[in-house]
Each structure stands twice: as C-alpha cells, then as structure tokens.
C-alpha cells in the first residue's frame, strides 16, 4: 500500500540547481519616475506560445445524470497538503494552449472531449511570480453505459479524479477545506461564481 506523501526537509535552492524556476531581480520605474526593484520567481519552461500552463474546466453531459465537472486531488509539497484543483499542466514547447488542454485532460482524467472555450492569458499571483496560464472549457458528452476511462498518468504522478455535479461543487470544496485539503484559487473562484450566480443574483 502506498505511503502518505510528506515533506521531509526544506532548504534554500541554489540557482545552479533549479530546473523549473528562477529568481528575477526586476528593475522598474514607477509612476513618479522613481527607480524601484521587485523580486519575482519565473518559470524556465515557457515555450513558443508564450503561455506557461492550462487549467481545464470540464462540463460532463450525460443522458440521465446532472451536468458535472471533474476535479483532481494531488499532493503539493510547497503547501504540504492534498490540493483540490482543476486538471491542469504545462504547455509543451511547440504546443498551443488549446492542444495542451485536451491532452492534459485526457492524461490526468482519462476523458476526451471537445474544446469549447479558452480564456485570454491570465495570471494568478502577479505580485510574486511571472507565471501565466489560460483556462479552457472542454465538453465531454457521454452515453448510457459508457465506462469510466483509464487515466494516462506519467510515472510519479499520483492524481485522484473526482466527478462532481455542478450543483454540488461549491459545497464539496467547502467540505474538502474542512478536511484540511487546500483548494486551488482558480477552482474556488470558478465554483464560487457558479454558486453566487444562483444564490445572490
């Protein structure tokens, strides 16, 4: 039986050893012309598209079940917790965000679908990192009797997929948080938008 993941040590990372990220010292001029310095982290893997990653909001349609979405659970060492997230991943060097969204959804969840929307390039934590992404919507249409597909995970990937009816998503994320899991901000904001649109407008 697999053991529970955990952080065993934390130490400074020399720049010469960093494979995925680097620190940047950004010199800039403010609105009064005053020179300033900003510290940031940056990905080292950005390809031709100019976009680092995609996250995928999935809409599953089934003849006899309510519209649902797919979320994933995976351990993230920086927060030392199981995180609740959209399926997501980095964009390969010569890949478009649209291509990456369909590929990543299949790899992480096993499902194949049709891309129906992809967002402009957006940022998650612009005060700290240069990372950007696009949010894709992929529609999956199922028939009665369709079996749950097999994930196509890479070695070392441990991802649990969860199918959640859209009407239950907000409450499910609240429950995960109460259990000590960490909910990704993009997923939370998406779910909260759906919830607030139904309850507050």
UniProtKB/TrEMBL annotation:
Which residues are in the Nudix hydrolase domain?
A: 51-187
Query: Keywords, A to Z?
Result: Hydrolase
The record ties this protein, via InterPro entries, to:
NUDIX_hydrolase-like_dom_sf, NUDIX_hydrolase_dom
Gene Ontology biological-process annotations: nucleoside phosphate metabolic process; ribose phosphate metabolic process
Q: Name one GO cellular component term.
A: nucleus
Give GO MF terms, alphabetically: ADP-ribose diphosphatase activity
Q: Which PROSITE patterns match?
A: NUDIX
Q: Which Pfam families match?
A: NUDIX
Name of this chain's protein: Nudix hydrolase domain-containing protein
């Amino acid at each position: 039986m697999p053991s529970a993941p955990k952080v065993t040590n934390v130490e400074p990372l020399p720049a010469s050893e960093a494979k995925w990220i680097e620190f940047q010292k950004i010199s800039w001029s403010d609105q009064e012309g005053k020179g300033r310095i900003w510290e940031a982290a940056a990905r080292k893997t950005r390809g031709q598209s100019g976009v680092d990653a995609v996250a995928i909001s999935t809409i599953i349609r089934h003849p006899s079940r309510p519209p649902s979405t797919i979320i994933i659970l995976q351990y993230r060492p920086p927060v030392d917790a199981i995180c609740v997230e959209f399926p997501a991943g980095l964009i390969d060097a010569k890949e478009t965000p649209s291509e990456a969204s369909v590929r990543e959804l299949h790899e992480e969840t096993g499902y194949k679908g049709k891309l129906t929307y992809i967002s402009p390039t957006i940022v998650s934590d612009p005060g700290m990192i240069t990372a950007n992404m696009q949010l894709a919507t992929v529609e999956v249409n199922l028939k009665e009797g369709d079996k749950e597909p097999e994930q196509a995970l890479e070695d070392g990937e441990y991802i649990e997929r969860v199918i959640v009816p859209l009407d239950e998503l907000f409450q499910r994320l609240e429950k995960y948080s109460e259990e000590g899991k960490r909910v990704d901000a993009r997923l939370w904001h998406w779910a909260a938008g759906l919830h607030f649109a139904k309850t507050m407008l």
